[in-house]
Amino acid sequence: MTSEPVEADEVLVERAILVVRQYQTASFSLLQRRLLVSYETATQLMYILEERGIVERGDDGEPRKVL
């Protein structure tokens, strides 16, 4: 087992952080468009960003504030 997929995922997370900081908002559609990822991947990224304290908790599908 190699660590390559984990590293690739971390690169994607870092790219997501840059995107939400650049736009000062975070939404699933923004991540999908800017990173060219699926909705499922955007969802996973958003939860990671939330866990790391980068974005606030979601509220009824509204874009999230970048902390």
What is the secondary structure topology, with strand pairs?
Layout: H1 4-23, H2 28-35, H3 39-51
Helix pairs in contact: 1-2, 1-3, 2-3
Explain this structure.
- With 67 residues, this protein is an all-alpha fold.
- The chain has one domain (4-51).
- Helices cover 61% and strands 0% of the residues.
- The protein has three helices and no strands.
- The protein has helices at residues 4-23, 28-35, 39-51.
- Helix 2 (28-35) crosses helix 3.
- The chain starts with a helix and ends in a 16-residue tail after the last helix.
How do you describe this structure in short?
This protein has 67 residues and is an all-alpha fold. The chain contains three helices and no strands.
Radius of gyration: 12 Å
State the domain count: 1
The chain-level structural class is mainly alpha
Major sheet characteristics: none
Mean pLDDT: 87
State the total count of DSSP E strands: 0
Low-confidence stretches: none
Q: What gross morphology would you assign? A: globular
Taking the alpha carbons of the first and last residues, their distance comes to 36 Å
Helix proportion of residues, in percent? 55-70%
- Following the backbone from N to C, one meets helices and strands in this order, namely HHH
Number of helices: 3
Bin the strand percentage: under 5%
Oligomer: single chain
